[in-house]
């Protein structure tokens, strides 16, 4: 986390599918203040109750997790709730239920999680046009396809393997931040995409 913070990453999601609820809580309790000290947001995956107890900025839910409305009752209006979506119906339902953002994908093939067939940047663009809340691209995002994801309208991207499997985590994170910045600047230029 420290190397990614130094590289300019400002949103972290702690995802632990195999740990005990106690170990997830203990780790989240350490990560939340570390992110806060660096002015970064810290989101816990799956567990709204642990997110609240550990002082996380919010929770990221899956389609089979606690419903958004129930998570909102636990976390209140001041914390962030995001949810993974895999099609237009789920994306619109998430917005209507009060999600603060959606993750959409998998945009590309990924070995990190099983979430169905790759949706592609074209479907990401359709989702971006259909909802007004932020859309984060998930699934198979790497240095080679990150610019295409941002050009398709993503507000950000969830990246695991492209950073954690790199020989230098800090350099890999730095490169991702650079690509996002350059792509956003290109989009904002006259004649660029909007």
How would you describe this protein?
The mean pLDDT is 93. The chain is 46% helix and 14% strand. The protein has one domain: TIM Barrel (Alpha-Beta Barrel). The protein is globular. The protein has 194 residues and is of the alpha/beta class. Helix 2 (21-37) packs across helix 3 (48-54) and helix 3 (48-54) runs parallel beside helix 4 (68-75). The chain has helices at 2-7, 21-37, 48-54, 68-75, 88-97, 120-130, 146-151, 161-164, 169-188; strands spanning 11-14, 41-45, 58-61, 80-85, 101-104, 135-137, 156-157. Strand 5 (101-104), helix 6 and strand 6 (135-137) form a beta-alpha-beta unit. The chain starts with a helix and ends in a 6-residue tail after the last helix. The protein has a 7-stranded parallel beta sheet.
Helix-strand layout with pairing:
Layout: H1 2-7, E1 11-14, H2 21-37, E2 41-45, H3 48-54, E3 58-61, H4 68-75, E4 80-85, H5 88-97, E5 101-104, H6 120-130, E6 135-137, H7 146-151, E7 156-157, H8 161-164, H9 169-188
Parallel strand pairs: 1-2, 2-3, 3-4, 4-5, 5-6, 6-7
Helix pairs in contact: 2-3, 3-4
Series of secondary-structure elements, N-terminal to C-terminal: HEHEHEHEHEHEHEHH
Separation of the first and last Cα atoms? 32 Å
Q: Based on the structure given, which CATH architecture is correct? A: Alpha-Beta Barrel
The CATH superfamily is: Aldolase class I
- How many distinct beta strands? 7
User: What would CATH call the class?
Assistant: Alpha Beta
Structural class call reads alpha/beta
Largest sheet: 7 strands, parallel
- Can you tell me the CATH topology? TIM Barrel
The count of helical stretches stands at 9
Q: Whole-number radius of gyration?
A: 16 Å
Range of helix content: 40-55%
Global geometry:
globular
Number of domains: 1
Instruction: Please tell me the overall pLDDT.
Output: 93
| Strand coverage percent | 5-15%
């Amino acid at each position: 986390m420290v190397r990614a913070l130094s590289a300019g990453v400002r949103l972290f999601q702690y995802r632990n599918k195999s740990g005990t609820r106690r170990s997830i809580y203990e780790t989240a309790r350490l990560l939340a203040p570390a992110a806060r000290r660096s002015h970064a947001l810290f989101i816990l995956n799956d567990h709204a109750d642990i997110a609240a107890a550990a002082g996380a900025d919010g929770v990221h839910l899956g389609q089979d997790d606690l419903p958004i409305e129930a998570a909102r009752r636990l976390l209140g209006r001041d914390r962030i709730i995001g949810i993974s979506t895999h099609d237009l119906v789920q994306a619109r339902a998430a917005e209507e239920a009060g999600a603060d953002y959606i993750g959409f994908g998998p945009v590309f093939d990924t070995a990190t999680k099983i979430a169905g067939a790759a949706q592609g940047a074209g479907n990401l663009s359709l989702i971006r046009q259909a909802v007004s809340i932020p859309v984060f691209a998930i699934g198979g995002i790497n240095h080679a396809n990150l610019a295409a994801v941002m050009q398709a309208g993503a507000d950000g991207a969830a990246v695991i393997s492209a950073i954690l499997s790199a020989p230098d985590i800090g350099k890999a994170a730095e490169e991702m931040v650079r690509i996002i910045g350059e792509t956003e600047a290109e989009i904002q230029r006259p004649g660029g995409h909007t």
